[in-house]
Specification:
By secondary structure, the chain is α/β, with parallel strands linked by helices. The chain contains 14 helices and eleven strands. Strand 8 (180-186), helix 7 (191-203) and strand 9 (210-214) form a beta-alpha-beta unit.
């Protein structure tokens, strides 16, 4: 991605923030126009939803990786105590274990402190409804703030989701019933698939509340969500959920950037929240410190980062979630999608 493209995205962001009526922090605050600062945490507007979420989001997969459940619960509660409000999860993480652990962690008054999101894999109305009900039980809540269609990776996924009897019908029904407040989608494969999803949604007179996608300093150069999808979301006032700022460690293996640089780059973009994997209290401390020390990157800093990472990013080898299927749970478990419609003949 060229430096001028990055700057155009930032300019669009500033305009969208002001148009949306974002309320700046106090005059002596280091907040950007679409932020407020409370304590050491920054909070940003979530698209046009009227919600405000922490700039740092707690990744759901990583909080299911601890050997002991109590350690997962301790991480989640420490994150919330540190000001993190955005909770990420998914129906399929650790066979539901991540949702079970988060549900337990959100007891004792913690649920009311967070914006809770999970994802479902089902492409049929039946599969999606069943998965959503399981998630509600595991998370021990009557309503989930945001539910997203997970792993929209294939060009046919949007058509399946919006078809008659498709998963979108289940989420719309759940929203009407008060089980779900907002609806979004996620994917990590190719920006063309995201654009296709937005196109199909528009044909059905639907505008998503959020979109989740990889946003990192390598993505800026290769099959870039930042370049192709992000400006559309800003224009449509759709909440931007950045993920894979470090790509589960693969971005760091390029040896071109540090964890803090990764987070600061993603936070400089028009992200509502940057969802990141936090699998220990030490990593949580590191990430909270990154928020505390964050200042939007200057033009010079952006140019230096893009120049430094250009060669490593050129073929996607440090973003294997784009180029392989090791991150594609629904490719390894197609049954999660639900029985496909065989169509005519």
């Amino acid at each position: 991605m060229e430096r001028r493209d990055f700057l155009q995205v930032l300019a669009a962001t500033a305009a969208a923030s002001l148009t949306a009526g974002a309320v700046p922090a106090a005059a002596d605050s280091p907040a950007t126009p679409n932020e407020t600062v409370r304590g050491d945490m920054r909070y940003r507007r979530l698209g046009r939803t009227g919600e405000e979420v922490s700039v740092l989001g707690l990744g759901g997969h990583h909080i299911g990786r601890q050997k002991e459940e109590k350690d997962s619960i301790a991480i989640i509660r420490a994150a919330i105590d540190g000001g993190i409000t955005f909770m990420d999860n998914s129906w399929d993480y650790h066979d539901g274990g991540a949702e079970f652990r988060m549900g337990k962690a959100l007891k004792d008054g913690y649920r009311k402190k967070v914006f809770l999101m999970t994802k479902i894999d089902g492409r049929t109305k039946k599969a999606a409804a069943e998965q959503l009900d399981q998630s509600l039980r595991r998370l021990q809540t009557d309503v989930i703030d945001l539910v997203q269609h997970h792993e929209v990776l294939r060009l046919e996924d949007p058509d399946r989701i919006f078809a008659e009897g498709g998963a979108q019908e289940a989420l719309l029904a759940a929203r009407k019933a008060g089980k779900v407040r907002f609806i979004g989608f996620t994917g990590h494969k190719d920006p063309l698939v995201h654009l296709r999803m937005l196109e199909v949604a528009a044909k059905h007179d639907f505008r998503f509340d959020t979109v989740q996608m990889p946003l990192n300093v390598l993505d800026a150069h290769f099959r870039s969500f930042e370049k192709h999808v992000l400006p559309v979301l800003v224009r449509e006032e759709i909440g931007v959920l950045g993920m894979k700022s470090m790509g589960d460690g693969f971005v760091l293996k390029s040896k071109k950037v540090t964890p803090v640089e990764c987070l600061h780059y993603a936070m400089t973009l028009p992200t509502s929240t940057v969802i990141t994997g936090i699998d220990s209290l030490n990593i949580l401390k590191q990430d909270l410190e990154a928020v505390k020390t964050f200042r939007p990157l200057t033009d010079k800093e952006v140019a230096a980062l893009l120049e430094r990472t250009a060669e490593a990013a050129s073929d996607g080898r440090f973003e294997p979630f784009k180029t392989g299927n090791g991150f594609d749970g629904t490719a390894q478990h197609p049954e999660w999608l639900g029985a496909p419609d065989k169509g005519p003949g």
